[in-house]
Amino acid sequence: MRVFVTGGTGLIGTAVVAELLGNGHSVLALVRSDASARAAEAAGAEPLRGGLADLDVLRTAVARTDGVVHLAFRNDFSSPEALAASVAEETAALTTLGEELVGSDRPLVTVSGTPWVPGRASTEADPLPTDGPVGGRGRTVDAILGLAARGVRSTAVRLPRTVHHRGAGGFAGLLTETARRTGVSGYPGDGTQRWPAVHALDAAALFRLALERGPAGSAWHAVADEGDRVRDIAEVIGRRLGLPVESVPQETYGPLGPIFATDQPSSGALTRQELGWEPKQPGLLQDLENIQP
């Protein structure tokens, strides 16, 4: 299968491109810079210059490929306005990709986060949140899955709050960045809230499985660690960086503060059962030992 991949040179995208190429697929990768184009070529993919805002480029890519894996997102969490702009850009891009695929029965694999359910681990059957700081992403993913009724084999891989590789990535990565900047390895509240996690290489395997055989309209959980306590995450970060570990106000994390403070474990049991996905890489706390002081 020739696959169009957006976000193919990021932490997750690099792993997805390698997974696809290693399993007999070819890749057309959307790239925004010369450096990204060189990285895509070095990995074995064909680069296509453009960004999520270049809707005509996206239409051209769909016409040249057999399926789409969408990963790109402008991760600007500096303010509520910046985050809203990122969500709006992605919505326009995904809507364009979906409309171009209508009636083709080709796959479109998109991405979202695992939902939050009070008092228990969320499952694949739980709906995505459609309000809050990133509620717009949930509404867009729901619309894309709805294209199953219009001849698109649309599926969604729900990623946990931390997708990690060699100690970097996700919410845990943001805790590390904040710790380096402030001199404190912090956590909101009492730190007992739990975050799910998955290694990028394990997540990549699930994206491939969803592309190859995910039924139209289905959602899958790329969850390896059901829920690590945020204080435990902060303690590993603090030890690796030689910094004190303390509770900090949730405002420390800007518009993501309320999400950081929420207990949000998640289960991927159905995904393992139905798609035969089995995580094999190190868990988050073990992988954070790769953080360099």
TrEMBL record:
Residues 113-136 are annotated as: Disordered. Pfam families: Epimerase. Residues 3-217 form the NAD-dependent epimerase/dehydratase domain. It comes from the Bacteria. GO terms for cellular component: cytoplasm. This is SDR family oxidoreductase. One of its GO terms (molecular function) is aldehyde dehydrogenase (NAD+) activity.
